[in-house]
Amino acid sequence: MESALITGGAGFIGSNLALELERRHPDIRVTIIDDFRSGEFSNLVGFRGDLVAQDLASLDLLSRFRLGEFQVVFHLASITDTTVTDARQMIWDNVEGFRRVAEFARLSGTPLIYASSAAVYGVCHLGRMQEDQPACPANVYGFSKTLLENLARRYADSSRDCRIVGLRYFNVYGPGEAHKGVAASMIYQLARQIRAGRRPRIFKYGEQARDFVYVKDVVEATLLAADANHGGVYNVGSGRPTSFNEVIALLNKALETDHNPDYFDNPYPFYQPHTEADVTRARAELGYASKYPIDRGIAEYVKQLMETDMKQPDVHEQ
Ligand SMILES: NC(=O)c1ccc[n+]([C@@H]2O[C@H](COP(=O)([O-])OP(=O)(O)OC[C@H]3O[C@@H](n4cnc5c(N)ncnc54)[C@H](O)[C@@H]3O)[C@@H](O)[C@H]2O)c1
C-alpha cells in the first residue's frame, strides 16, 4: 500500500490504524483528516504523515485532494460519545461527513472502509448479533450509523466500481482511548478505579456482558477489509461475551489486586444486557480471526497502562 486517507485518525482506533499502516508500509503516504473535537495529538507521536485539521462535514474533499490520490480511504471520524442526544448535531456531523467521503471515493473509484457500530443492533437482539438482523438502534448515535449503512448500500448499488465495506465494531478497548473520558471502554474505567485503590463500580449484579474486542484485532480487521475484493457489512468483535464481573476478576489478576465490585442500581431502562458478535461472515469473507482473547488483551493493556500515567478525570459511567 502506497497511500491512504484516514478520517478520525487522531482518535483511538484511527491513530492505532495510522501508526500500524506506517509500521507495515514504511514508504506509505498517510493523510489524516481530524478536527480534534475528540482526538488527541499525543496518540500520533511518531506519525510521519500529513494532517488536515478540518470538520469533515464542511470540507470540500474534491478541491482539497486529487481524485485517485489515495489507494484506500478509511472513514472513522464520528461523534463517538453515545450519550449525545442532539439528533440534529449527531446526524449532521456523522452523516454529512460520510456523504462527502463516500462521494469522493465513488468519483475516484477508491475503496472505502468505514466504521459502523454494534449500536445498530440496539436492545432488540439478545444472543448473538448477526449482520442480517434488522437494525434497531436505541440511541441517535446508533441511528446515525444505520444511516451510514443505508447510504453505503445506495452507493454500492449505483456503481459496480464502488467498493464499500462497513465494519460494525463492538466494544473496543486498548491503548489510545484515555482521551475519550466517559466514552472510553469500561475496561479502561474499571482499571483506573482499581489502580486508584477504589472498589470498581458496576451496575447490579455485574452479570451484564459485552463483546470486548482489543484494538489490535480491530486494526487487523480494518486492514483485511481494505484487502478484500468485495463490499458488505461485517461484525468486528471477539466473538465472545464477557461479563463485568469477569472483567473485574481479570483486572484484579493483571493488576495483582483483590477489589470486590461495588454494585449500584442501573438507572437506564433500555440498557443492553448482552452484546455478542457473530463473526462468521468476517471470518469467511475477510479472513478475520481475533488473536486477543479477553485475558490476553487485558494483560497486555494493563501492562501498557502501568507504564503510562493515567491522567484522565475520574468517571463511573458504563
Ligand atoms: N471505540 C469503540 O468501542 C467503537 C465501537 C463502535 C464503533 N466505533 C466507531 O469507530 C470510529 C472511531 O472511534 P474511536 O473509538 O476511535 O473514537 P474517537 O472519538 O477517539 O475518534 C473519532 C475521531 O474523529 C474525529 N472527528 C469526529 N468528527 C469529526 C468531523 N466531523 N471532522 C473531522 N474529524 C472528526 C475526532 O476528533 C476523533 O479524533 C468511530 O466512527 C466510532 O463510531 C468505535
What does this 3D model show about the protein?
Strand 4, helix 3 and strand 5 form a beta-alpha-beta unit. Strands 3-2-1-4-5-6-11 form a 7-stranded parallel sheet, with helices on both faces. A two-stranded parallel sheet has the order 7-10. The protein has a two-stranded parallel ribbon with strand order 8-13. It is built from 9 helices and 13 strands. The termini are far apart. The protein folds into 2 domains: 191 residues, NAD(P)-binding Rossmann-like Domain (Rossmann fold, 3-Layer(aba) Sandwich); 93 residues, UDP-galactose 4-epimerase, domain 1 (Alpha-Beta Complex), CATH 3.90.25.10. 36% of the residues lie in helices and 16% in strands. The C terminus is likely disordered. Helix 1 packs across helix 6 and helix 7 crosses helix 9. The protein has 318 residues and is an alpha/beta fold.
Bound molecules: nicotinamide-adenine-dinucleotide
CATH H-tier superfamily of the largest domain: NAD(P)-binding Rossmann-like Domain
N-C termini distance: 38 Å
Contiguous runs where pLDDT drops below 50 for at least 5 residues = 310-318
Gross geometry: globular
Order of helices and strands: EHEEHEHEHEEHEEEHEEHEHH
What is the number of E strands?
13
In round numbers, the mean pLDDT is 94
Biggest beta sheet summary: 7 strands, parallel
Strand content: 15-25%
**Radius of gyration (Å):** 19 Å
